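G.,

No rush on this.
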Amino acid sequence: MKAITIKQPWASLIVHGIKDIENRTWPCPKKYLGQRVLIHSSGCHGKKFEINMPDEQMKQAFSLISEKSTAGKWEFGAIIGSVEIIDCVMNHPSIWAEKGVYNWVLANPIFYERPIENVKGKLSFWDYPGIKEVKIECPECGSIEIAVEDYTTAPFSTYLHRCNKCEHVIMESEWHVVK
């Protein structure tokens, strides 16, 4: 899958569904519009960062930022989730959109309960091999879920997902990909 590196706290705000825009000086390539990409939090270990947000943004993000900051739970140098890039515009009405730059419109975020740690990021879009997101059906409640097939875990691949609706743990023997 393709991945993109984003600094904290923005990466966490995106995968938690709080920040719906990624601001860039360059337009999102058309081939990535409508695609799901992995969100990699940059590896700025131990550096202090200042959160400079207007009041409206701070109100929306405060609980997540407070919880992660006080508990020291920021993930750095890790793939922490994924999101769909559904559009690329300028001057989007979202409170997260900056003026004069490209606003990548994001939707359907997924936060990984267990991040993929110790991953070195790159500029622009980059390939992260070994991860594939698939749609599966929960055998307990029938909910269609986006789950991760992780081929990087040795010696065996990981097929394990907790249903977001009924919390049933879907294991490899119950793993049925939906097209």
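When you get to it, here's the other one too:
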Amino acid sequence: MFKLAVAAAATATLVLASGSALAETATASFQVKMTIVKSCSVTAGTASDINLGTAVLPTATNQTGSNTISVTCSKTTPYNVGLAPSTANSGTVNGTGFMSSLTTSDKVPYSLYSDSTYSAAWGSTIGSNTVSGTGDGSAASLTVYAKNTNANFAPGSYADTVTVTVTY
């Protein structure tokens, strides 16, 4: 009986093993894909407004102020940030403009700069007076400096709109 049980077990093992040995397989493959495009965004708005203060003559010259804008570009993306004072107020590509008022026809001149010594004009001509960088995926904080050299104008509140353009 014992011999019969051993023989049956051996036969079952051979049948199972031979079934596994006869199994075949087929394979295929696929890819997981993604396209990442270069991109940039800029944040300015009222939080970036520059207030040159209150001017009192005769000492109201060289009023200065600064604030920041934020630029976020994808990793390794080169960019240029240009500033353009309003052309409606005779703004130029050199970063100079005029603030106007709703109560007077006077226009107060100002200039934009990329440095705290007010020597590097910040305009909108790439390769000449823009600020450049290379994105790393995080926000870069850029300080904008503004100065007016003459406040001998009619009393009133003056303002101008500056357009920030990121070229990438």
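The mean pLDDT is 88. The first helix runs from residue 2 to 21.

Enjoy the weekend,
O.
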